[in-house]
Amino acid sequence: MSTLVENQPAWLSRLREEGAARFGQTGLPTQRQEAWKYTGLNRLKAFGFEPAPAGAASGEVPAALVEGTQHRLVFVDGRLDAATIGTLPKGVILKGLADVLRNQPDIAEPLLGKLAKTGDRPMAALNAAWFEDGLVLIVPRGVTIEGPIEVTFISGDATAACHPRLIVSLGDHANALLIERHLGGAAGGFANQVAEIELGAGAQFRHYILHAEPSVSTAVETVSTRVGRDAAYRSFALTAGGGLVRREVEVALCETGAAAQIDGAYLVDGERHSDATILIDHQAQHCASRQTQKGVIDDDGRAVFQGKILVRPHAQKADGYQLSQTLLLSPQAEIDVKPELEIHADDVKCSHGATVGRLDADALFFLRARGIPEAEARGLLIQGFIGGALDEIDRPAVREAFGKTAADWLQRRSESRS
Amino acid sequence: MLSIENLHVSVGDREILKGLTLEIPAGEVHAIMGPNGSGKSTLSYVLSGREGYEITAGSVTYDGKDLLAMQPEERAAAGIFLAFQYPVEIPGVPNATFLRTAVNAVRRGRGEKDLDAIQFMRLVKDKSRKLGITDEMMKRAVNVGFSGGEKKRNEILQMAMLEPKLAILDETDSGLDIDALRVVADGVNMLRDPARSMLVITHYQRLLQYIVPDRVHVLAHGLIRRSGGPELAHELEQTGYAEFADGKAA
Lengths: 418, 250
Ligand SMILES: Nc1ncnc2c1ncn2[C@@H]1O[C@H](COP(=O)(O)OP(=O)(O)OP(=O)(O)O)[C@@H](O)[C@H]1O
Ligand SMILES: [Mg+2]
Description:
The structure holds 2 protein chains of 2 kinds.
Chain A: H1 10-26, E1 71-76, E2 79-84, E3 93-96, H2 97-103, H3 105-108, H4 122-130, E4 134-139, E5 149-154, E6 161-162, E7 165-170, E8 175-184, E9 189-199, E10 204-211, E11 217-227, E12 232-239, E13 244-253, E14 259-268, E15 273-282, E16 288-297, E17 302-311, E18 319-328, E19 334-343, E20 349-357, H5 361-369, H6 374-390, H7 396-417
Chain B: E1 2-11, E2 14-24, E3 29-33, H1 40-48, E4 54-62, E5 65-66, H2 72-77, E6 80-83, E7 90-94, H3 95-109, H4 117-130, H5 135-139, E8 141-142, H6 148-162, E9 166-170, H7 178-190, E10 197-201, H8 205-210, E11 215-220, E12 223-228, H9 231-239
The complex binds adenosine-5'-triphosphate and magnesium ion.
Magnesium ion binds next to helix 1 of chain B.
């Protein structure tokens, strides 16, 4: 257990002890567990989960993803290393979690561990035992933060574990946009992140996640979100890197009119593995949810999309939608899609669809007949498919930045093949 | 320019072209008419290099070269252009991006320098305006959500930009209203040139009033059954293809 904070308050010790005890009972999840059926964590067998001692960043901190970003926090091995925060509206808290735990623990107490239940979540339990730092974003009622907040995670020279914890709380009608950017480092490492996101009535939170680590990195994320009346949580995750990236997202639509859109795109090559496991829990009337996952898999890559829509007995007029589209570029590439609808109300509209395909032969011929060489034509079709996936990002600056990462991936792919 | 000799083409174990012979000299416009399923599109695909067709006998010589040995992109660079009967939709790829990629690929294949963005825009502006293709259509994904007529005009724009030596138009007139037909025909006529040949596949004599062919051929049951001047198209309009129904040459 982490003892980063000396004389930590009793509630924090309890949280950690509970987490450590739970993880001690279960250990790492195995593929016998339904939620982990398609994703094994064998690569972590030899890993110690204790965070590495603080070290220097292995590389330079890159420029912000979106030009002109005012608020930036950079974490090295899960610890806040540098922060530049612009002028924030009154009452907003945007800080490192370790700082808050040391200096204002009362702010964290009502939020930490509130949403991230550890019962059947070994990875969240492990995080509870070991987290040291992370993000605290608290936006008071009625406040809008203009422009994006970017948090960047890079890893140091040691091959180490880190357990960042993100706490986001938006008051009624508050509004914010967070970009999370995982760049890892050459030494690899294991990031076991937990995010707890709570949105008050009418709040709007946009959450964009980019994984662009090298293939030696492993990332497991557990996101728990609670969406209040008429509030909206909108997230998009692009997985363009990482040897294994799993995002487990649970969204509770708790009050009337709550909405969530959980989208993602994955570009998986080599022996990489990407997993999106999503549960949308419709608990109240007139809630809407949308999940789209689109991706390209090449070589021996593998992707998993488990998307569940749960509609509770009183959650009438639920509107749930789920779509999975995959482009397979090699014979060994594999996608496992498991859509699940569990509906206990009678007046609901839920649908799901999944397509898995290869590059369209007619389109390929059309491009070649227009003079475009085969390899370039393939690249153009893949780019077109990825472009369609990124179209779900409703902020042009973010879409463009993510598009650049996707273009880099394509470029590397075509170079490695020529 | 193009010389097809005794071409036999099969798909699976079914023979579709059964010894087709056709000569198109430089600068001439030839029309092919014929009943549904007679092999017209098959011929156009074989000429442009689509996979899935087995050439069991015969030869195709284009500009003195063995056309059938060339990849589709090599044929395009060498000046072959097929306006598709059913233009293909390419989601996610903007029309302008596609067109510029194609133009530069063909230019490279011909040993010319790439057009930069400004040169390309200048060229495309002029040509697209004449064909009634809006800037908005250039930004949209290739053919996605285009009406039938818009797709056909888009094909002609590609042709105008790529400046082929042998243009094959497979039913470019189908599904066009009178005004669109005139726009497309004008687009084609603009490209008429002593160094450029065309093979126009159509079901309707109407198109051939605008694009007057040097020769008209009837393709039925995988063979050219009859050839003649422009008046043959007119005659076919009256009589139909009944006389070719038995699969024997008239
Ligand atoms: N890939 C294929 N597999 C099986 N049969 C095919 C294939 N392509 C063409 N055919 C058959 O070959 C015959 C000729 O088709 P083709 O498309 O060339 O006709 P067409 O003359 O262009 O007809 P239309 O006037 O309707 O466009 C048809 O019977 C068609 O079903
Ligand atoms: Mg046809």
